[in-house]
Amino acid sequence: MHWAEVLGGALTGLMVGLTGVGGGALMTPILLLVFGVAPTTAVGTDLWFAAFTKIAATRIHHGHGLIDWQVVRRLWYGSLSCSVLTLVWLKWGTHPLGNFSSLKAAIAGAVLLTSMGMLFQPQLHAWGRRLRVGNPERFKAWQGPLTVLAGALLGVLVTLTSVGAGALGVVFLAHLYPLRLTPARLVATDIVHAIPLALFAGLGHLFVGHVNVALLGNLLLGSIPAVVVGAMLSSRLPQRWVRGLLVGVLFVVGIRLWLSVV
After folding, report:
1. What does pTM read for this prediction?
2. Calpha distance 72→83 (Å, rounded)
3. Does residue 188 contact residue 63 with C-beta atoms inside 8 Å?
4. What would the pLDDT profile of 163-204 be if each residue is shown by its tens digit?
5. Which of 81, 150, 218, 231 has the smallest CB count inside 10 Å?
6. Cα–Cα distance between 164 and 183 in angstroms, integer?
7. Predicted confidence (pLDDT) per residue in 219-234, tens digit
8. What is the rounded distance in angstroms from the CA atom of residue 65 to the CA atom of residue 239?
9. Do residues 77 and 148 touch, judged by C-beta distance below 8 A?
10. How far apart are CA 89 and CA 148, in angstroms?
11. What is the Cα–Cα distance from 236 to 184, expressed in whole angstroms?
């Protein structure tokens, strides 16, 4: 047991429970910058870490009746199908991120995109609310297809980098369901969507040997109890301040990761 790895898992698990974010956006950079894990192994290991951590959080959210299953299914239609197609492409096609530097740069870009998406989430939510109130029939007509499209984008991004299922998923849902999803329901719904997506993508990486099982075990020792605590506190703490802190952390981490490549 390596206590630094357990602590890293606990800190990330707490953020996942509180905000639904961090399974990939925070853990993958930690694996790269702190523990010196190879990028491909960091992605594969983090996908399994995110899946198991969010499974633990889901039981708490489901018990509180916070999950919107219709929205989850719409996201799955896009994300799971595109994850499978991306895995097939990685297996038998030309890898779009064929070297470690390119993969690290892509992860850094995904983390920075995540932080920017979280930063402007209130504006996107307000924009979605105006559209929903101003022209409800048209908004509802596009709501389903755009949710599937959002899932498809997440499926590709998560399979390639392990980043985006939590943070960008929340941003998309805040815009597409501005009245339907309260902050607590938003977190719970996004967490549930991310589980099979991470498992699908993680299986593909497991088959090609990109998962460090010993490292994964240490991370989960810390994350499982921490994510339960975070999930129990998520509806009680001010999400605005918690997410603001996370935005700052992700931006700094993304810049640091980018500078390690260039």
Report:
1. 0.83
2. 16
3. no
4. 877 778 888 999 999 989 887 788 778 888 888 898 988 888
5. 81
6. 18
7. 999 999 998 888 788 7
8. 19
9. yes
10. 21
11. 9
